[in-house]
Specification:
Shape: globular
Structural class: alpha+beta
Helix content: 10-25%
Largest sheet: 5 strands, antiparallel
CATH class of the largest domain: Alpha Beta
Strand order of the largest sheet: 6-7-12-10-11
Radius of gyration: 20 Å
Bound molecules: flavin-adenine dinucleotide
CATH topology of the largest domain: Uridine Diphospho-n-acetylenolpyruvylglucosamine Reductase, domain 3
Number of strands: 20
Length: 335
């Protein structure tokens, strides 16, 4: 186990806020978990993290952040059409996606270049460009902290929803995700329904999953701020899901984008609501709303977590006031 004391969270989170954790402990082998849970550190506050790309620390963290660094990818089963792959929690997500493509295992390419670890991918059911990871997860193996036993969650037991799962919600903090099993395709089927991806590839025919991967990486590099340059955690808010009746009422005054979810509810664009409230590109102190991507709050350098949170709350208040919609935060805020 590697331990860093008084660790700057600039190095452990992509927001790069100015805060410290009492210690960060890195787990490279699963058996080190047992050492951790037998140690004095487990009797004080602790939290499991991956690459910190979905976290906002508002204050210093008085306790231990446990970073999963376990590695390993194996093929567990296959037939002509499908292949079952297990990856350890500490594998980097984008490296894993590239590895699957190199092996001729398809499905994850639309989720290219999402920061973070494989072990975090089920937590908020990561998704992008028309795909969600829930559609590929077969099982999640996790360590149950209370019983100190390893157990498995089948896909339907993970209670996946839009940027949500049982691990972010009902059972938050009760399990350590150790390994995720993915059911992928051995046949190169592509999903280019998403407008941006379709446009980027529209002159091509016989489009391959590798081309989809490259297109998504390019779009993301153009659209999203690089956390190495400008601290951020991707989309700060979730797109709100509202009753269709509410959308129809709002439509009388605003020409809003709408994505049907069912006969009764639809999804609106949080970025559009934030932009209409005049927040896109605005900056308060060292925190701001990205000029090209209103959903992304950024740390222009030296921002505290509190500054970012204050900005987020002001945006929430304005959107609520103007549209009657309370935006949910997608980022995990640790107070
Ligand atoms: C530039 C940028 C773009 C992004 N784009 C997208 C996007 O397109 N789609 C998307 O869905 N997300 C996106 N995100 C958010 C983020 O990348 C994902 O949420 C990612 O899965 C977080 O992984 P992480 O390893 O950094 O997790 P962390 O931020 O370290 O942790 C996230 C949560 O998971 C928990 N957790 C982590 N590891 C474990 C474990 N082993 N066991 C139990 N709990 C654990 C943590 O306690 C925390 O609650 C983006 C972020 C950035 C910075």
């Amino acid at each position: 186990m590697k331990i860093e004391k008084h660790a700057s969270l600039k190095h452990y989170t992509t927001f790069g806020v100015d805060a410290f954790a009492d210690r960060v402990l890195e787990i490279e082998h699963e058996n080190e978990l047992y050492d951790f849970f037998s140690s004095e550190y487990a009797r004080q506050p602790y939290m499991f993290i991956g690459d910190g790309s979905n976290l906002l620390f508002v204050n210093d963290y008085h306790g231990t952040l446990v970073k999963m660094q376990t590695k390993g990818i194996i093929k567990k089963d296959e037939n002509k059409e499908k292949v079952l792959i297990a990856a350890k929690a500490g594998e980097e997500w984008d490296e894993f996606v590239r590895y699957t493509l190199q092996q001729g295992w398809y499905g994850l390419e639309n989720m290219a270049y999402i920061p973070g670890k494989v072990g975090s991918s089920p937590v908020q059911n990561i998704g992008a460009y028309g795909c969600e990871v829930k559609d590929f997860i077969y099982k999640v193996h996790a360590y149950e902290i209370a019983s100190r036993r390893v157990c498995s969650f089948a896909n339907d037991e993970c209670e996946f929803a839009y940027r949500n799962s049982v691990f972010k919600n009902r059972l938050k903090g009760q399990y350590v995700i150790l390994e995720v099993e993915f059911m992928l395709s051995q046949c190169p089927v592509v999903n280019i329904q998403y407008e941006d991806v379709k446009k980027r590839l529209e002159n091509g025919f016989d489009i391959t999953p590798e081309q989809v991967y490259e297109a998504v990486v390019q779009i993301r590099k153009e659209k999203l701020p690089d956390p190495q340059q400008t601290g951020n955690a991707g989309s700060f808010f979730k797109n709100p899901i509202v009753p269709l009746s509410q959308y129809l009422q709002l439509k009388q005054d605003h020409d809003l984008k709408m994505y049907p979810v069912s006969d009764e509810v639809c999804k609106l664009s949080a970025a559009e609501l934030i932009t209409l409230c005049g927040w896109r590109g605005r900056r308060i102190g060292n925190a701001g709303v990205h000029p090209n991507q209103a959903l992304v709050l950024v740390n222009y350098g030296g921002a505290t977590g509190q500054e970012v949170l204050n900005l987020a709350k002001q945006i929430q208040m304005d959107v609520k006031h103007q549209f009657g919609i309370m935006l949910d935060m997608e980022v995990n805020v640790i107070q």
